[in-house]
Amino acid sequence: MRPLTLIALLLVVLAAPAAAVAQAAPRASLPDIEDEVMCPVCGTPLNTAESPQASRERAFIRDLIAKGATKEQIKAALVDEFGTAVLALPDEGEGVGAAAYLVPIGLVAGLAVLLAFALPRWRRRRPAPSAPAAAPLSAADRTRVDEELARFDR
Fold first, then answer.
1. Are residues 55 and 95 in the same domain?
2. For residue 95, what pLDDT band results from cuts at 50, 70 and 90?
3. Whose CA is closest to 34, among 44, 43, 47?
4. 90 or 84: whose pLDDT is higher?
């Protein structure tokens, strides 16, 4: 191997773990978290809430961001502080919450079953019969066509 290639390869190998660490823990931001949590008082997403409690919750999040907490750590701290209702997730066990999880799963499963039955049928279809070949022209028709073409050539 050439020395330059060896040095480039060594740099790539040494830089890969640093890039993986940088991507593994992205820096949390208030706008990124605001749309995933709720105001516990008014029950609206934090990014649209205008209550004093929403302002306190934003300050709480900013403080955690300043301390270097990740998005997951901030959400865990919010759950500890305000309960699970602060997360903008549907309830898993009942009503609309269950439908929010089950309907997409059911749609994907239904489409998979539909494709499993439809694809073999589509593949087995025979091509449509082609149009029958035109009958050969009679001598009189051929003479007439030649006369018409000659008239257009003038």
1. no
2. low
3. 47
4. 84
